[in-house]
Amino acid sequence: MVDLAPAPVPTSAHQPSSRPTPLRVVLVGVAALTVVVVALLLPVWPAGPDMGSTHYMGLLAANQPWNLLLFMAVPVILAETVAVTELAILFRRTVHPAVAALNRYAGLVGGFWFVGIVVYLTRHAVVPLTTAGAWRGWVDVVAVGFYLLGVVPLAGLSLLETRVVGAGWTAEHRLRVHATLVGVFLVVAHVAMIAGMVDPGVAGWDPSHVMDDGTTMEGMTH
């Protein structure tokens, strides 16, 4: 009689575990905590002249060129690097080790970098603007909100690259998730850019400020 039972799956020391090792999780947690602490300890950077634009544009225009480099250029360049190298991997699957390494480390650094950005801006921008009621209409909230939302796919990339997530996944499944996260980041980043370039006044925001005596003062934006 022919035995139709499936053959047992051979185990090997090289077979990936379905769970990340505790040491790996601890190391990633320590790295993330370090980024958070550094971001909380950084002082608020000086703001530039208020042109009445969204706070997204105000952030990038202030303290030139550092704000533009740190808050936009670095995370976008890292994400674009992942996207370009991802195309090479998707089309060829077997790529030069340097391309694979660039893809991995760009995704790894991008997530931790953006965690620091989110913590810093939450403390020095989101909380003060919310408590003071200083948001410049819905378009301002969309611009900043979608910008900060980029931490979800970028942090996901870092967790994938460190194997804290997907340690037991196949290379094919990991690649699909990896490419999806890159696409999600590019979408939310471009939504933030488009909304950030909109004049808040066009979207219904009134820059006038009501004084204690009931009079209004034009041009006040906070």
List the helices and strands and how they pair.
Elements: H1 22-41, H2 55-61, H3 66-92, H4 97-132, H5 137-149, H6 151-161, H7 171-197, E1 209-210, E2 216-217
Antiparallel strand pairs: 1-2
Helix pairs in contact: 1-4, 3-4, 3-7, 4-6, 5-7, 6-7
Throw out a few tags for this protein.
222 residues; globular; mainly alpha; two-stranded antiparallel ribbon; disordered C terminus
Short description:
By secondary structure, the chain is mostly helical. It contains 7 helices and 2 strands; from the N terminus they run αααααααββ.
Describe the structure.
The protein has 222 residues and is mostly helical. The chain has helices at residues 22-41, 55-61, 66-92, 97-132, 137-149, 151-161, 171-197; strands at 209-210, 216-217. A two-stranded antiparallel sheet has the order 1-2. Helix 6 (151-161) runs antiparallel to helix 7 (171-197). It is globular. Mean pLDDT is 84; it is low at 1-15 and 210-222.
Inertia-based shape: globular
What's the story with the biggest beta sheet? 2 strands, antiparallel
Separation, N- and C-terminal Cα atoms: 84 Å
Tell me the strand percentage band. under 5%
Q: What spatial order of strands do you see in the largest sheet?
A: 1-2
| Total strand segments | 2
Low-confidence stretches: 1-15, 210-222
Structural class: mainly alpha
Mean pLDDT: 84
- Integer-rounded radius of gyration: 23 Å
SS summary, helix count:
7
Query: From N to C, what is the helix and strand string?
Result: HHHHHHHEE
State the helicity in percent bands: 55-70%
